Structure formats: C-alpha cells, structure tokens
Amino acid sequence: MPNVIKNSLVTLAFIVTTVSPALSAQCGNSAAGFDAWKADFATEAKRAGVKGKGLAALAATSYAQATINADRNQKSFKYALDKFLQIRGADTIIAQGKRRKAKNPAFYRALEQQYGVPAGVLLAIHGMETAFGGFMGDSNVVSAIVTLTYDCRRSDFFKPHAIGALKLVDHGSITPATKGAKHGELGHTQFLPGNALEFGVDGNGDGVVNFYDLADALASTANYLRKHGWKPGKGYQQGQANYRVLKEWNAATVYQQSLALMGAKIDG
C-alpha cells in the first residue's frame, strides 16, 4: 500500500477516534440508553450555561415512563369542538372565571393595562390548564422534560426546554423535586420550562419568578401573549387580530377555538 494512502488512513482513524467522544449520545425509545445520554447531555448543558445546581438536577433525573406513555396517547385534541368543550368542563370554567374576575377586578384590570390581554383570555387559560390551580401536575418536571429530550420523537423541540428547566433550577424558580404536568409543564398555566425562563415575570414584586404563585403565573402568561404579537384593544375571536396569537399558546385548533369562546363569555 503506498505510504500516502497508508498515512491518510492513519490520519482518518485518528480523527474518528478523537472526535467520536464529543458527538452527542444517540436518542432512544426506552430507558436502556438514558444514563449514557444524560452524561453526554451534561456537557452540552454546561456549554449552554447551566451551573452546578442544574447539572446536579440533571444527574438526579430518572427515565419518566409515565411521560412517554402520555406522549404516545394524546387524544383530546382530536375531538370536535363541542365534545372538547364538554370534556374540558367549559361551563364550569366560564362560571368560575366570572366569579374570579368579579372577586379581584383590580388585579385583572392591572394586567390588562400593562400587557393588553383581557381577563377572559387569562382566566380561560388558567381554567383549561389547571382548573384554576386545582391540579398543577404530579410528575417531576426535570425528569419529564429531560426524558422527552432523550426520546427520539421530538428531541429537538424539547431540548431548549430541558436546558430551560436546568437553568430554572439554577435560578431558584424550581427545584429538582418540583412537580408539574406529564410533559414538564409547570405552574398555574403550565409553562414549558424554556418559555418560563424566557417570558417569566415577577408579578407580585417579591424578587422571584415563581410559576406556582398566581400573580407571577398570570403576569407571565400575559407577557408571553404580548411578546408573541398580542395587540391591545383588538379582538381575539376567529378572524380578529389576536386570534392568531392563541395559536402561539397552543397549536391545536380546537384549543384555540375554546379559549376564544370561553374568554368572550367570561369577559361578557
């Protein structure tokens, strides 16, 4: 074999050997490769700015089989609007939303003055997501979102939310034990962690953004909608300027329709 070819092969082998460890671990569809992937993802998380507490939270995560089961069994968004409204308890949400608005009008008025988002929309989201804080989830947020990032179905989508969750641990907004929904959504209005990190607002002025505090959660929700194009004073029914912004909160058409309908009745 000519020396030039031999030397080229040796060089190529050296490159492959030295580069391979730096490549990201492969995603997986079972718990089998999760720990190896975590170790590799820790390097990526550190490069993204995650510090000691966040890295420790990553190391402590476990494969969330219940999250994977839920992710593969989503059905409600396939229902027709009437069925969806019935399943979600729209009448109850509207009634409770009206009572909540009437009980604390100054709070919702202040949110609308600051962000331009009316009470009906915020209350409809709050009711739809957690029954007004009645159930904010029983899954470990960090384990859930990290598992979804490892899973091959939507790794790229969930990766910034995993990084976000680890940074939220660093910031003290959540802990490694914080509970949320099956897909890692957290707090009163179920923010995905990356969105929580980017759009979170200290609504009660205590210096901490806590999505399990009502004022922080609703101010953050209003801020999210405003930053995604909400136009103060404009309508949010189908065909009106703000209806498209509801899609930024949830991509399911039936969900957007439900928010518009319930919000109008709460505000009405």
Poorly predicted tracts of residues: 2-23
Spatial strand arrangement across the major sheet: 1-2
Query: Helical percent range?
Result: 55-70%
Beta content comes to under 5%
Question: How would a crystallographer describe the biggest sheet?
Answer: 2 strands, antiparallel
Q: Rounded to an integer, what's the Rg over CA atoms?
A: 22 Å
- SS field, number of helical segments: 14
Mean pLDDT across the residues is 91
Strands, count: 2
- Quote the distance from N terminus to C terminus: 84 Å
- By secondary-structure content and strand pairing, the structural class works out as mainly alpha
Structure description:
There is one protein chain. The protein has 268 residues and is mainly α. 60% of the residues lie in helices and 1% in strands. The protein is built from 14 helices and 2 strands, in the order ααααααααβααβαααα. It has a two-stranded antiparallel sheet with strand order 1-2.
List the helices and strands and how they pair.
Layout: H1 3-19, H2 34-47, H3 52-59, H4 65-71, H5 81-88, H6 90-103, H7 105-115, H8 119-130, E1 139-140, H9 141-150, H10 155-171, E2 179-180, H11 193-199, H12 214-227, H13 243-249, H14 253-267
Antiparallel strand pairs: 1-2
Helix pairs in contact: 3-10, 6-8, 6-14, 7-12, 8-14, 9-10, 10-11, 13-14
Give a quick summary of the entry.
The chain has 268 residues and is mainly α.
Which key features would you list for this structure?
disordered N terminus; mainly alpha; 2 strands
